[in-house]
Design a protein that fits this description.
The complex is a heterotetramer, with two copies of chain A (89 residues) and two copies of chain B (152 residues). With 89 residues, chain A is α+β, with helices and mostly antiparallel strands. Chain A has one domain: Roll (Ubiquitin-like (UB roll)). Helices cover 25% and strands 26% of the residues of chain A. Chain A has a five-stranded mixed sheet with strand order 2-1-5-3-4. Chain A is globular. The model of chain A has no long low-confidence stretch (mean pLDDT 95). By secondary structure, chain B is of the alpha+beta class. Chain B has four helices and ten strands; from the N terminus they run βαββββαβββαββα. A four-stranded mixed sheet of chain B has the order 1-6-8-2, sandwiched between helices. Chain B has a four-stranded antiparallel sheet with strand order 7-5-9-10, with no helix packed on it. Chain B has a two-stranded antiparallel ribbon with strand order 3-4. Chain B is globular. The two termini of chain B are 24 Å apart. The mean pLDDT of chain B is 93. The chains are: A alpha+beta (89), B alpha+beta (152). Chains B and C meet through helix 1, strand 2 and helix 3 of B and helix 1, strand 2 and helix 3 of C. Strand 2 of chain B pairs antiparallel with strand 2 of chain C.
Chain lengths: 89, 152, 152, 89
């Protein structure tokens, strides 16, 4: 299944991309995609992805523009944004 | 309750915004407002240009949610948030929040609440140019603590 | 800390006052402000003209004391209080308070503190004209409670 | 001894005077003038003074422009203001 990834601010610069389509293994009765499975798939790319998205690093994930936790489901067509803690105002 | 959210590169005029809100609502007795601006020093380094990035779409939604939460907690007439993005320099205005109400307590509380939540939830990121080069500003634990206290 | 207090019949322009305070102090990162205005309703009656009396001399001293107390409690750059006296009508501005600081928490707290103390200590009295005639506005227990909480 | 009285707002209107000189008995080793003795002297005038300055009525007293309590001394030449609770802002 295809989702749309969005990277912002420092992570956009580190990954060198702001928006891209990403292929996740299709869901099956025994495999549900969540933020956690997506992050695992991204880390498998190695390099800056493995580094910046390592557990314990400070980043946030929004699915369809709502900030969510690791167990939140990820479905085909979702927009999943990954970004550093916010620093506005 | 009227909630207006604007994310824009252009500067804003707080006085004009307040006049527009007050016009035609003679029940308003209190207007609390806040302006955040670029300082020329941050974390001990002098700052030149600053760049503000955001997440279009989500930003507006978050700001509207923050204002709706404020109006659920306090009896207010209007909440206005203007947040600038793009290149900014020292002394530039970054953000303003205006809240109107019948009595002052409600507008003060709602205005500070909106700023505290904005700082921790709205997807804006600051990148500063210092003599040592460019750097993304780190989130401040103090801001998380400020937002946390409203959960009591 | 700079403290400016003005008691005047003339109207004021909050935007211009804030621009003047910010001009030339690039350390200001936060500006909290408040405007109190005449509502057309009070205690259920429609209000026409209003007259504001004060105690010249004591008024300015009290306002300066209130600002000095605020600057003793919070790290702020400026405190400005403008309070109008004389005849006022619905929608007119009555009072504004502006506080500047490096970070927002200090300016918010000091601004609300000054307003709460102003309402209970500064010698101003409102007389309203209603369809039932003229009446002096009674002090509100709510204002005493608002000022009281800063004593904790 | 002479002091200067100032009445403000509703009390100014009720008493029909905004500022006047007032004679208090001179202080002696056994008699000190305070806000309390001044108020007693004003109440002795009867009428609206007795009514508005009765114990339990809500009014404030400032000596030389500082709000004070009943036991505050009053000296010759002092400016003593009596006014209702404030309602500014």
């Amino acid at each position: 299944m295809t989702i749309q990834l969005v990277f912002l601010a420092r992570l956009r610069e580190r990954f060198g991309v702001s928006r891209e389509n990403f292929e996740l293994p299709a869901q099956t009765p025994t495999h549900t995609n969540t933020v956690a499975t997506l992050l695992a798939a991204l880390r498998e790319q190695g390099g800056v992805f493995a580094e910046e998205l390592a557990e314990g690093r400070a980043f946030r994930v929004a699915v369809n523009q709502d900030v969510v936790q690791l167990d939140h489901p990820v479905n085909a067509g979702d927009e999943v944004a990954i970004f550093p803690p916010v620093t506005g105002g | 309750m009227t909630c207006v959210v604007r994310v824009q590169e252009a500067d804003f005029d707080l006085g004009a915004e307040i006049r527009a809100l007050r016009l035609g609502n003679p029940r308003i007795g209190a207007v609390a407002s806040f302006i955040g601006c670029v300082r020329d020093m941050n974390e001990g380094d002098s700052v030149g240009l600053m760049y503000l990035e955001h997440y279009p779409g989500m930003t507006e939604r978050e700001l509207e949610k923050i204002c709706a939460e404020a109006s659920g907690r306090w009896d207010i007439f209007d909440a206005l948030v203007i947040h600038r993005v793009g290149e900014l320099k020292p002394l530039d205005q970054i953000v303003c929040v205006v809240v109107t109400s019948a009595h002052r307590g409600e507008s003060f509380s709602a205005c500070e609440f909106i700023m505290d939540y904005l700082k921790t939830r709205a997807p804006f990121w600051k990148r500063e140019s210092t003599p040592q080069g460019e750097r993304w500003v780190d989130a401040r634990a103090k801001d998380d603590a400020a937002a946390e206290r409203w959960k009591q």
